[in-house]
Amino acid sequence: MGTLSILLSALAVVYSRRITDEYKCYAEDEDQYLYFGTKTSYAVMFKDSLPPFHSDECSPPLMLWEMVRHGTRFPMFEEHRPLKLLVGLRNRILRNHKIFTNVELCDQDRHNLGNWTFDFLISENNRLSPKASLIWSHWPGDIWRGIQRSFKTMKKISFWSFQITESDRTNQSAQHFLRALFPDESIPQPEPNNSLLRSYMNCSTWLLDYASSRAIRQYSDEFHNSLLMSELVDRVSRRLGFFFDIRPSQVDAMYKMCAYDKAYKPHEISAWCAAFTKQELKMLEYQEDLLYYYKHGYGMDINLKVACPLLRDLIVRLNESITQGKSATPVVIYFTHNGMFERFFARLGLLNSSSPPTAQFDFSDIRAWRLAKYIPFAANLAVTLHNCTGGYKVAIYLNERPLQLEFCTNGLCEWQTLYDRFHTLVDSSTCNLDDCYVGTASLPTPLFIATSLLLLIIPLV
Q1: 272 backbone dihedrals φ, ψ, rounded to 5°
Q2: How far apart are CA 446 and CA 302, in angstroms?
Q3: Is-contact 159 330, C-beta < 8 A?
Q4: What is the per-residue pLDDT across 186-224, written as a single tens digit (0 to 9) for each?
Q5: Which residues, in sequence order, are bridge partners of residue 163?
Q6: Which H or E run contains 143?
Q7: Please, which residues have CB within 8 angstroms of residue 121's CB and are 6 or more apart in sequence?
């Protein structure tokens, strides 16, 4: 191949990775972008719920095991100041329009930005948003109603075991969830269980690996500093009337404000979403997915290890229901965080592909690790056990839809197949948190203190 052909091919590759869509008036867009990684609203998933599994050859559910992510929350503490600074940026954008008339936003988008106010209180950081209660009041959906109708004991809260993490938002989520199911009963206080549901929180090995390994953040840093992201910053800056590029951190704050707006009110207009085109929103969504793949998922071996006890809990409880019958706990529900969901999915082998994600972004959106599709606010993974002709079967639902697994059919798994696949993996001699504390006792005191302080500055979601 000649030099010219090679050059033309290289240019074609570069051009194919350019942002090509143009700004359109966001307020008039009837197909607004709704996927914002782990800040995606559950309402996007809820509209697609399906009825629960039913077969004349199988019994009603014998037991239920479920993990639920907390509902929509307010911004985290470290996000508060950057989001509040958007007030000043908004004023500069309006001044650009008044003085230079070079802001590319349509009149309605500009008007919405002018009317935007920053309403978050610092005391609300990390807490559940009042809007989340609306999701819980309409959820549980068809699956839960079907389960309740078919399994009478599930109508009694005394048969339930439910646990939370040591955070207000999982506690509040549990309370809303249970009130929706038991409006006429007194709701007991859930039991905190961080060691099972947020095991990474006190895992010094995870903290040290994340803090010391450049490779873990390599691809997300490369993408953040890429020419494509520079182009995004430049496009947004010009669109908002600036003659220079605003800081990437300001673009990030605008995106987060857009994401929170759509999480709280997915079908209403967000003033800050108007700053972006759909391709730009997809890029910013991918940036978070890329970070979490390595931080919470397959990028660190310790992630799979800290999720193993939760998988062991699932397998053990299913087995107890089979061997102990009615004496086993019929309903177990855990309220946790996206960080636990991501690690649990990695332990199950879900959302993985032969090629790990890199800094090379693909506008086609075809990727296995796309968190907006699987772990929105209020995400839920439900597992029910059934006694069927030919043996026990397990139905698995993710966000009220059958979860497609390679070793199951339409979300329905043979119990023996599931047991054979995982029972060795979850052996108590290896499926534990011992690796979290290897060498910690022998750490020099300054390093031990520094590791402890990392708990305060690394977001552990």
Answers
A1: -85, -20
A2: 23
A3: yes
A4: 888 899 999 999 999 989 999 888 888 888 889 999 999
A5: 191, 334
A6: helix 142-150
A7: none
The dihedrals phi and psi of 67, each to the nearest 5 degrees, come to -120, 140
Q: What is the three-class DSSP state of 347? A: helix
Residues sharing a CB contact under 8 Å with residue 422, sequence separation 6 or more, in sequence order = 311, 315
The percentage of residues in the chain with a pLDDT greater than 90, rounded to a whole number, is 65
**Cβ atoms of residues 269 and 96 within 8 Å:** no
Longest dimension (CA), the chain: 78
pLDDT at residue 339, as a whole number: 97
> How far from 17 is each of 180, 237, 278, 306, CA to CA, in Å?
47, 20, 15, 37
* Contact (Cβ atoms closer than 8 angstroms) between residue 383 and residue 244: no
What gap in Å lies between CA 54 and CA 410, rounded to an integer? 12
**Amino acid at the residue 81:** R
Spatial separation of the C-alpha atoms in residues 68 and 143, rounded to whole Å: 14
Rounded to whole angstroms, how far apart are CA atoms 164 and 71?
13
pLDDT at 446 over 50: no
Does residue 173 contact residue 380 with C-beta atoms inside 8 Å?
Answer: no
Q: For residue 447, what pLDDT is reported?
A: 46
Report which listed range, 119-123, 210-214, 307-311, 445-449, is most confident: 307-311
Residue type, 200: Y
Query: What confidence tens digit (pLDDT) does each residue in 101-110 have?
Result: 999 999 999 9
Burial class (CB in 10 A: 0-12, 13-18, 19+), 321: buried
Q: In angstroms, how far is CA 109 from the centroid of its own chain?
A: 29
Closest C-alpha among 232, 233, 238, 230 to residue 93: 238
pTM of the full structure: 0.90
The helix/strand count (H/E) of the chain reads as: 18, 8
Task: Output the average pLDDT for the chain.
Answer: 87
Question: Residue 445 has what pLDDT?
Answer: 43
Write out the two tokens for 253.
């704050």
Lowest mean pLDDT among 72-86, 175-189, 375-389: 175-189
User: Given the structure tokens 């229901």, which residue do they identify?
Assistant: 321
Sorted by sequence, the CB contacts under 8 Å of residue 354 that are 6+ apart come out as none
Give 153-178 pLDDT, tens digit per residue. Answer: 556 777 789 999 999 999 999 998 88
* Pairing status of strand 380-388 against strand 191-192: unpaired
- Can you give the pLDDT at residue 362? 87
Q: Which alpha helices (DSSP H) does 182-264 contain, by range?
A: 194-197, 204-212, 214-224, 227-239, 248-264
Work out the number of other CB atoms within 10 angstroms of the CB of residue 60: 16
Backbone angles phi, psi at 163, to 5 degrees: -135, 160
Question: 36: exposed, middle or buried (C-beta count within 10 Å: 0-12, 13-18, 19+)?
Answer: buried
